[in-house]
Amino acid sequence: MTNLLTLAGAQIARQSPHSNRIAAWLTRTALEQIVDELLRAKGIEAGKASGRARLACLEVAYRDQHEVPSRSQYAWTRLSEACHQHAYQLSPTYQEVRHLLEIVRNLQASRPPVPVARSRRSPISSEPCAGGDGGVHEA
Question: What pTM does this model have?
């Protein structure tokens, strides 16, 4: 994910007509990976939950650290708006995307180490969790 944030920063620096929107997509993808890591650090495997559902889990898991879920939700919402722009809307500005990129970089720097999982079962469902290769693995 550091690579995604590096690519997003390079994309912003290009200042081409679509570079801000491309950077927003890269940053949002990195943010989604960071949210997954933050949840795993609390022992939660989100499985195939939507982005909004993962953010809701993050809010509960980090209720004692209110800044983590609030900054994550703000960045995800704003990045989603930038990624799914309608024809009648203005593109995100350089400053907007740069600010969101910094928020995501700060979230990445503040994430705790992920503990080694003992079980491959998702606490959200009774289904086995998908492994990194996309396949489903039993515990």
Answer: 0.76
Tokens of 117: 């999982």
- Could you identify the residue written with the tokens 């912003």? 12
pLDDT tens column, 103-112: 999 999 887 7
Helices (H), ranges, 17-86: 19-41, 51-61, 67-83
Q: What are phi and psi of 128, to 5 degrees?
A: -65, 150
Closest by CA position to 82, among listed 3, 26, 15: 26
Contact 92, 21 (CB under 8 A): yes
Determine the length of the chain: 139
105 by DSSP, 3-state: which? Answer: helix
Helices 94-110 and 19-41 cross at an angle (nearest 10°) of: 20
